[in-house]
Amino acid sequence: MADENYRRNQQDGQYTPKIWGGINGDVGTEWQIETVRFWDDANFYGILLREAPLRGAGLPTIIIARRVSLDPDDDIPLTEVDLENDPSTGEFSVDYEELGFDGTGRVFLPASAEGWTLVVKRYPGSGRVLKDEGDLVLEGDLTIGGNIVDPSGVALSGFITIGSDVFPVYLKRLGFTYSVGSTNVAHGIASAETDNKILEAWTVDHYTNMAQNYNVTAINWDDTNVNIAASVSPLRDAYLYIRYIGDALA
User: Fold this and answer.
1) Which of 28, 92, 112, 149 has its CA 20 to 30 A from that of 66?
2) How many domains does the chain have?
3) What is the phi/psi pair of residue 36, to 5°?
4) Beta strand 91-94 with 79-80: parallel, antiparallel or unpaired?
């Protein structure tokens, strides 16, 4: 491990880890929010921390929770197990920076956790950057000539801040096939995320110049599926789009 990768105190020459998320894990602006996915290059399910993580005497332990709704109070804490053990559902393990070893910062989870949203609320970072991320601050217009991409393929989600107001953003696209009658499409959204929220769904048909809701007579929800009633024949391929548009009135 090269010392130049650490945070060095110019006064005493000591290298001090940064505690991301604060000593109590309550500094929300420093939380790292990631989606569990399969990493082809390293053959594992999990996420990657921004910095090489540390552990040891005098350092707080890592805190990771599963996000199941838009309310952080509903986050479900996960349990850390040793790296030598395969995590079960609700567990994770971490590849730490150790004396003589460069940690990868990989957080390992079981395959059943693929698609979960995780919140890393606290961990000591060595200063060696593994994932170059940061906020982009602009004081003018932003023109994008390409696409905003969600590499996980799960959903584009997050928050937009306007002044002191914070607005959730959620957009998901699912491919499906439909015909005459009723078709269920599993939406994969945790039931808690739909509580007191208004989510809009619509279809786009491949065969009619991308017409919206072509011959669709009704779209309904439950905790598992979006039910689409239609009167088209024969079978058609389409996309189902889902987006968050606001909170329901109390």
Assistant:
1) 149
2) 2
3) -65, 130
4) parallel
The one-letter code for the residue type at 227 is: N
Show Cβ contacts of residue 228 under 8 Å, excluding neighbours closer than 6 positions.
176, 178, 182, 183, 184, 185, 203, 216, 218, 219, 240
Nearest-angstrom CA–CA distance, 33 and 135: 13
Q: What is the pLDDT of residue 87?
A: 96
Mean pLDDT by 10 residues, the chain (250 residues): 50 78 92 90 91 90 90 92 94 88 90 92 88 63 66 64 70 81 82 66 71 84 84 79 71
**180-204: burial string, b at 16+ Cβ within 10 Å, e else:** eeebebebebbeebbeebebebebb
pTM of the full structure: 0.54
Structural domain contains residue 216: yes
Which residues on adjacent β-strands are paired with residue 79?
91
One domain for residues 205 and 117? no
Rg value, the chain, Cα: 22
Output the CA–CA distances (angstroms, integers) from residue 191 to 36, 90, 101, 113, 194, in the order listed: 19, 18, 42, 16, 5
How far apart CA 211 and CA 238 sit, in angstroms, is 10
Quick one: pLDDT at residue 173? 79
H-helix or E-strand spanning residue 93 = strand 91-94
In a domain, 150, yes or no: no
- CA distances (Å), origin 179, targets 188, 202, 213, 246: 22, 15, 12, 31
